[in-house]
Automatic annotation (TrEMBL):
Annotated PANTHER family: REGULATORY PROTEIN PCHR
Domain HTH araC/xylS-type span(s) in chain numbering: 221-321
Protein name: Helix-turn-helix domain-containing protein
Keywords of the record: DNA-binding, Transcription, Transcription regulation
Provenance organism: Streptomyces tauricus
InterPro entries: Homeodomain-like_sf (IPR009057), HTH_AraC (IPR018060), HTH_AraC-typ_CS (IPR018062), PchR_regulatory_protein (IPR053142), Tscrpt_reg_AraC-type_HTH (IPR020449)
SUPFAM superfamilies referenced in this protein's UniProt entry, alphabetically: Homeodomain-like
Length: 323
């Protein structure tokens, strides 16, 4: 079990539980010991089926921030609880499936429900529900004990696409927490936790509070992640990103201004960086004009001027110097 942490009370930190390389019949015991060392019995591990315990190959990276637990899970083997499962929970849970499927039963409003790749489920559980995961399932999870969320959710099961604007924002903020949690001071940890709660509320209500300044860093991170995946798209722009994230263009621009950046500047900088990496390759397959077209510069002249301003050399000069 590898871990890094901050805070003497154990309220912040990260650790890894990995039994994918552990002999099958020792995997569950190793996982259970690691879990109980960190959490005790709150929350307790589910009552897994005998088949699951006999072949328990799971990798779980956990980040803890106060009452929030973020989990990045890969289940190499199939996982199933005994039915009926049980045990008090009183947790708000989010499950975003990236690969495979997660099936949960006993939902008062849905009965049994399967969350497949690209979908999420959010609800409050007062009891441990029966569930199963198919082999090779990847999932991003969030557990919260916040009483602020229970009245909003009630007895509802909220589901939807994992790439909805609200989920993009929440996912971006969870990534930021994972990368910064060990360095956060008390004030930073408190702010990060408050933003997490607000973004879960946004997912529950399908509405983002674009007037809340604390949410600006999450919006910037989500916009950057979205832009990075579409750098070669001709229609990538500030307006496109704002529309995809379901916020006004002005809101997006204000968020970037808060971190001393601009949306267009970020897009251009990332395109130049990708072009630079291509030029540095030993045998770059693209000419300067082809690079300009590929990374959506108006023409070679615009590309050359922008590249020289950014890196102090023309693309041709840079390519020669790196080779």
């Amino acid at each position: 079990m590898n871990s890094t942490g901050a805070g003497a009370d154990g309220s912040r930190g990260t650790f890894l539980l990995d039994t994918t390389l552990t002999p099958a019949r020792q995997g569950f015991d190793s996982f259970r010991r690691g879990w109980e060392a960190r959490f005790g019995d709150r929350p307790a591990l589910p009552a897994y089926s005998a088949d699951t315990i006999a072949d328990f190959r799971v990798r779980l990276r956990i980040t803890r921030l106060r009452d929030a637990v973020i989990g990045d899970l890969y289940a190499e083997s199939a996982v199933r609880t005994d039915d009926p499962a049980g045990g008090d929970l009183d947790l708000v849970e989010l499950h975003a499936v990236r690969r495979g499927a997660w099936t949960v039963g006993g939902l008062p409003d849905r009965g049994e429900l399967t969350v497949s790749r690209g979908q999420f489920l959010l609800r409050h559980f007062d009891r441990q529900p029966p569930f199963k995961r198919s082999a090779r399932t990847r999932e991003l999870g969030l557990l919260l004990r916040s009483a602020m969320l229970r009245p909003l959710l009630g007895n509802r099961t909220v589901t939807g696409p994992g790439d909805s604007p609200e989920m993009r924002l929440l996912t971006a903020h969870m990534k930021m927490i994972r990368s910064t949690v060990t360095g956060l001071g008390p004030a930073g940890a408190d702010a990060a936790h408050r933003v997490l709660i607000e973004l879960v509320k946004a997912v529950a209500s399908s509405r983002f509070d674009d007037g809340e300044p604390l949410l600006a860093p999450a919006l910037v991170r989500a916009a950057k992640d979205l832009a990075d995946s579409r750098l070669t798209d001709a229609d990538l722009s500030s307006a496109t990103l704002a529309r995809e994230l379901n916020v006004s263009l002005r809101t997006l621009q204000r968020a970037f201004a808060a971190v001393d950046e601009s949306v267009t500047g970020y897009i251009r900088g990332r395109r130049l960086e990708e072009a630079r990496l291509a030029l540095a390759a030993p045998h770059s397959p693209l000419s300067v004009s082809e690079l300009a077209a590929h990374w959506q510069f108006a023409d070679s002249s615009h590309f050359i001027r922008a590249f020289k301003k950014h890196y102090g050399q023309t693309p041709t000069e840079y390519g020669r110097s790196t080779r």
